Amino acid sequence: MNRVIKKTISNVCALKIQRKSFCTEIVKAAGSTDGQFINEHEKKQTSSNNIQQYDVAIVGGGMVGMALACFLASMPLTKQLSVAIIDSNPALGSGLCIKKDDPPDPRVSTVTPASISFLQDAGAWKYVEQNRHAYFDKMQVWDYTGLGYARYDARDVNKDFLGCVAENKVLHSALLSCIKDSDLKKTIYPLRLTSMTLNPSSTSMVDVSVASKESSAQGQSAKLQLSDGSSIYAKLVVGADGGKSRVRELAGFRTTGWNYSQNAIICTVEHASENRYAWQRFLPTGPIALLPMGDKFSNIVWTMEPTESNNCKSITEEAFLKDVNSALDYGYGPHPTSSLSRNRDILSWFKMDQTLSANEFFEIPPKVVRLASERMVFPLSLRHANSYASKRVVLIGDAAHTVHPLAGQGVNLGFGDAYSLSRIIAEGIALGTDIGEVNLLKKYEADRKPANITMMAILDGLQKAYSIDFGPFNFLRAAAFSGSNYISPLKRSIISYASGEQKLPLFL
Ligand SMILES: Cc1cc2nc3c(=O)[nH]c(=O)nc-3n(C[C@H](O)[C@H](O)[C@H](O)COP(=O)(O)OP(=O)(O)OC[C@H]3O[C@@H](n4cnc5c(N)ncnc54)[C@H](O)[C@@H]3O)c2cc1C
């Protein structure tokens, strides 16, 4: 045990010394007023021997890339690392100041209890709670045929809530605040990655006195070229640059996937009083979700055919609100209230272990009275990188996998990736391994790939199951609703799985 501790301490010291030798240029601290809180890189890069060297370069400072930086900042072993974050998104440089009464954004994420727990441990969640957010403890799912519905309640699994909805800008700014308040040696490059060399030659070194030391360090690094023509070196490049990842392309990772012939139209709406539940109704063209956001606001995520979505985006507010209220109520088919007592009888042998929510009746969602944001349209696709890791490069978040938003899992899978990768990097440091070593990075892939593929398969299956409008199949689907509503072990395992626990639902 003592030997492990000694080795860990000596590895951390070695890391610090190495970093010192890497940092041939002192980063310029940007003015600290008005949110300008993170070091920005020194734009003036006079000669090739002045190239900055980092332990980790995170390409893409979206929610997942920033979460990785937070997780690294929160562990004793990894907070010693020097980290470059590359993203031209102005929100990173300005440290966007969010106020609780700002108008709501159209882009939100449903964050699972598992992700909340990761973000709490890293110290980021408290910043989310300072802004608008909404925990919800109940959810109702039903379909347009009127044949079945399911109610889920956090109390079914002895939890306080099923999830929390927060605007993406709130999540992003919380992660930025967390990084700002940490000791992590971070440098933000407000640029884009343009190209990457994974085994750069050391011949460009000019300064003879430090050449051998630096060339050996750079031999163990990837070289990243940025959009202003400058370059940096990093021992590990993390592609957190979204669904159209440049890192993935440059590293030659192939993908498998397809585009759905569906778009999602999203917007924020207002009710006469606060909505406290999450609602999802499956319509013949795709699901519509109404998610509570706090302050009488809800977010709409409505999947439909591209022509319909374009139409929905351009019609008047009045016509759009009418369509939304109809889609969440009597439009397309009847309410499923009549099925409750019948299904309860059929499934009466499960009565002994009934969940609390199995006794709840169908409810009609609250009416929408006002459009509170612009309407945005997103094309939907499923894409998965065949491999997440090779020497010096690793993919996380949407760069590794893009999923259908029908269950609000995309960023949660990404947070899971970031959490896992941060632990694997810490393990590498503790063992004295090069953090860009492929064998180490493959451990991250082995940890995350099965979980991500399983979730992708479930979401794709659901998408397909609800795209079929065919009599006998509709009954099967209604039976599945009833089963998930009344069969308690199945219901509990569905809630736990959707909450981010790794255990699979019983039916798989
Ligand atoms: C309609 C809709 C609703 C959704 N709802 C939910 C939900 O409720 N819950 C949920 O969990 N998920 C949801 N998702 C999915 C979620 O939004 C994504 O999974 C998540 O945003 C992915 O985060 P990311 O950081 O991996 O990628 P992104 O958010 O795409 O961020 C990538 C970042 O990389 C930067 N970048 C790109 N290229 C470069 C480059 N060459 N150099 C430097 N930087 C670069 C970009 O500027 C960007 O900041 C939804 C998605 C959609 C479309």
TrEMBL record:
Q: Which cofactor does it need?
A: FAD
The molecular function terms in GO held by this entry are: 2-methoxy-6-polyprenolphenol 4-hydroxylase activity; 4-hydroxy-3-all-trans-polyprenylbenzoate oxygenase activity; FAD binding; oxidoreductase activity, acting on paired donors, with incorporation or reduction of molecular oxygen, reduced flavin or flavoprotein as one donor, and incorporation of one atom of oxygen
Q: Which residues cross the membrane?
A: 54-75
The reaction(s) this protein catalyses? a 4-hydroxy-3-(all-trans-polyprenyl)benzoate + 2 reduced [2Fe-2S]-[ferredoxin] + O2 + 2 H(+) = a 3,4-dihydroxy-5-(all-trans-polyprenyl)benzoate + 2 oxidized [2Fe-2S]-[ferredoxin] + H2O; a 2-methoxy-6-(all-trans-polyprenyl)phenol + 2 reduced [2Fe-2S]-[ferredoxin] + O2 + 2 H(+) = a 2-methoxy-6-(all-trans-polyprenyl)benzene-1,4-diol + 2 oxidized [2Fe-2S]-[ferredoxin] + H2O
Give GO BP annotations, semicolon-separated.
Answer: carotene biosynthetic process; xanthophyll biosynthetic process
EC code: 1.14.15.45, 1.14.15.46
Membrane topology classification: Peripheral membrane protein
FAD-binding domain location, by residue?
54-329, 375-452
One Pfam short name: FAD_binding_3
Q: Where, per UniProt, does this protein localize?
A: Mitochondrion inner membrane
Gene Ontology cellular-component terms listed: extrinsic component of mitochondrial inner membrane
Q: Keywords of this protein's UniProt record, alphabetized? A: FAD, Flavoprotein, Membrane, Mitochondrion, Mitochondrion inner membrane, Monooxygenase, Oxidoreductase, Transmembrane, Transmembrane helix, Ubiquinone biosynthesis
**SUPFAM superfamilies noted in UniProt:** FAD/NAD(P)-binding domain
The pathway noted for it is: Cofactor biosynthesis; ubiquinone biosynthesis
Question: What is the protein's known function?
Answer: FAD-dependent monooxygenase required for two non-consecutive steps during ubiquinone biosynthesis. Required for the C5-ring hydroxylation during ubiquinone biosynthesis by catalyzing the hydroxylation of 4-hydroxy-3-(all-trans-polyprenyl)benzoic acid to 3,4-dihydroxy-5-(all-trans-polyprenyl)benzoic acid. Also acts downstream of coq4, for the C1-hydroxylation during ubiquinone biosynthesis by catalyzing the hydroxylation of 2-methoxy-6-(all-trans-polyprenyl)phenol to 2-methoxy-6-(all-trans-polyprenyl)benzene-1,4-diol.
Spell out the family assignment given in the record's similarity comment: Belongs to the UbiH/COQ6 family.
Which HAMAP family has this protein been placed in?
Answer: COQ6_monooxygenase
How is this protein organized at the quaternary level? Component of a multi-subunit COQ enzyme complex.
Name this polypeptide is given: Ubiquinone biosynthesis monooxygenase COQ6, mitochondrial
Q: Which organism is it from?
A: Lupinus angustifolius
Q: Give the source lineage, highest ranks first.
A: Eukaryota, Viridiplantae, Streptophyta, Embryophyta, Tracheophyta
